[in-house]
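Appendix B. One record, verbatim.
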Amino acid sequence: MLSDEDKSKSLVLKSGEELFFAPSSAVEARLKKSGYENDLAIQSTNHSDLTAGVYEGGFKVWEGAIDLCNYLDSSVQAEEIAEKSVLELGCGAGLPGIYAAKKNAKFVSFQDFNQSVLDCFTRTNVQLNSVNLERCRFVAGDWVDCLESFEGQKYDLVLTAETIYSEASFTKLHDIIDRTLGDDGIVLIAAKLYYFGVGGSVPAFMDFVKRQGRLNVKDVWTSDTAVPRKILKLTRIR
């Protein structure tokens, strides 16, 4: 149940639609109430956006997630979401997945590296947006470890934002997409063109996907900003 501490902030999409998310003060209060104050992931948030293998930035609303919500709102047809199964990888706040749920997705699975993120941020945001928790699933862990949790489940729409910041993660991301994407499914990945200082980039990821020979990949949206941001669309090679 939500409390007065969970008074929300909102993301207003270009169409005017609002998505709500918990402010940092509410998240911190929930973390303490849930016994996560000594969690290594929580300690990492005090000095870094991410710490590889410990905390993957889940308590921050990233630009790519906002881009992805706006793209879903403006460029994806309602019938491509309604009654579809949706997976958001590296979900953090979970806003793209929440948007899909509000547009009548059949069910949405939210995956994040940290259980604390899912328990104290993602789940809260789902409730703030009046999404039925019975239509949602929450899975914590590294993408390799999560594969067993998704065994046999195929998704119509896979969403992920800001997850290609390091080339070291390309194989794991590609593998979990390949294992969970339905035959006619669509993947949308939001990312910065280049991640300076950490090594990942859109061109490097696109080249990687093409070399694997299992998925088509194309650029479907570009921001008009000094450091361009992109949205990629992936489908199965038939």
